[in-house]
């Protein structure tokens, strides 16, 4: 399921997909109901789709796909997939963990710069959409402390880019891996209390609550910025509006349309910035992602075919043993 159907792929990519098995490509430009999803997917052994098609690939849907053997999603996060049900059914899952890392990291810096220099407001003032009395005074990133919650691919990329601005980098992670030069690993409580800017680069786990609720927002350094290029559900929206209204936080930027107009009217102009879930959306990320998606689909097809061949060999060997008995 792709936004432009077969036109989403190059001729070489279509050849690779068709060489792996019988291919059906459906054009999906908006969210599907569970019934629509099932109507398209029921005959398939392998399904490839994006979050455009569904925001909840759950056990109810999976249970009605008895022939399903593999799923390849054009996404990095997987909170919208019932991975427990996929594992229970021994259905293979392929994700794209690194196709948009650089784009999201650069977008994160863009959000930081927009908030620190009030660029989003400057444009509106220049267009006479806001009065000249709106303050456009910003601050420099150099010398400020950046706290990154989640030091995976994106968190590491954000750290590397931020070092070029002369920032001090703190990070916390529930499962830290290799150290990053110039990044100090600390407990989350210390990170929140010392950081001028906090970036959320962590996963949202299926069924979990927000990472930044009232207690965490209160623990942040007064006057700090919160930047969320990940999932909007990581932050309690009502709590962050309250923290900004009380002037505890300077502002909040999120890569999603998380707030309605009524909520935005509660805070001063520019204190909340939304970027409509476009952090991943670049020419380079699209090219990398589509190729990685094709590779994942082809890989699943080969793996399933190899399993089928191995099973046939075992069944043949068992039949020979019985006939010899």
Structure description:
The chain is an alpha/beta fold and 325 residues long. Helix content is 41%, strand content 13%. It contains twelve helices and ten strands. The chain has helices spanning 11-20, 34-41, 59-62, 83-88, 101-117, 119-126, 153-163, 188-194, 214-219, 237-245, 261-264, 283-324; strands spanning 46-49, 70-73, 92-94, 145-149, 168-172, 183-185, 197-200, 224-228, 249-254, 272-274. It has a seven-stranded parallel sheet, with helices on both faces. A three-stranded parallel sheet has the order 1-2-3. Strand 9 (249-254), helix 11 and strand 10 (272-274) form a beta-alpha-beta unit. Helix 1 runs parallel beside helix 12 (283-324) and helix 5 crosses helix 7 (153-163).
List the helices and strands and how they pair.
Elements: H1 11-20, H2 34-41, E1 46-49, H3 59-62, E2 70-73, H4 83-88, E3 92-94, H5 101-117, H6 119-126, E4 145-149, H7 153-163, E5 168-172, E6 183-185, H8 188-194, E7 197-200, H9 214-219, E8 224-228, H10 237-245, E9 249-254, H11 261-264, E10 272-274, H12 283-324
Parallel strand pairs: 1-2, 2-3, 4-5, 4-7, 5-6, 7-8, 8-9, 9-10
Helix pairs in contact: 1-12, 5-7
């Amino acid at each position: 399921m792709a936004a432009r159907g077969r036109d989403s792929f190059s001729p070489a990519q279509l050849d690779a997909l068709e060489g792996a098995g019988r291919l059906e490509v459906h054009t999906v430009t908006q969210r599907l109901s569970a019934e629509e999803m099932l109507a398209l997917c029921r005959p398939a052994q392998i399904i490839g789709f994006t979050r455009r098609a569904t925001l909840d690939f759950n056990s109810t849907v999976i249970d009605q796909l008895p022939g399903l053997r593999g799923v390849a999603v054009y996404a990095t996060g997987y909170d919208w997939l019932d991975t427990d049900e996929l594992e229970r059914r021994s259905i293979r899952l392929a994700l794209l963990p690194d196709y948009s890392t650089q784009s999201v990291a650069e977008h994160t810096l863009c959000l930081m710069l927009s908030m620190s220099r009030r660029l989003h407001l400057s444009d509106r003032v220049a267009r006479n959409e806001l009065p000249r009395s709106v303050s456009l005074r910003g601050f420099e990133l150099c010398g400020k402390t950046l706290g990154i919650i989640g030091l995976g691919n994106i968190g590491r990329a954000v750290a590397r880019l931020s070092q070029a601005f002369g920032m001090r980098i703190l990070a916390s992670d529930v499962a830290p891996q290799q150290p990053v030069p110039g990044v100090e690993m600390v407990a989350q409580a210390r990170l929140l209390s010392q950081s001028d800017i906090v970036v959320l680069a962590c996963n949202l786990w299926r069924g979990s609550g927000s990472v930044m609720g009232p207690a965490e927002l209160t623990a942040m350094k007064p006057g700090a910025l919160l930047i969320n290029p990940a999932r909007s559900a990581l932050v309690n929206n009502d709590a962050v509006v309250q923290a900004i209204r009380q002037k505890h936080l300077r502002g909040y930027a999120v890569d999603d349309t998380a707030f309605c107009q009524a909520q935005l009217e509660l805070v001063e102009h520019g204190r909340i910035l939304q970027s409509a879930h476009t952090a991943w959306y670049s020419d380079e990320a699209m090219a990398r992602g589509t190729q990685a998606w094709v590779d994942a689909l082809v890989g699943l097809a080969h793996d399933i075919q190899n399993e089928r061949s191995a099973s046939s060999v075992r069944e043949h060997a068992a039949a020979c043993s019985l006939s010899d008995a």
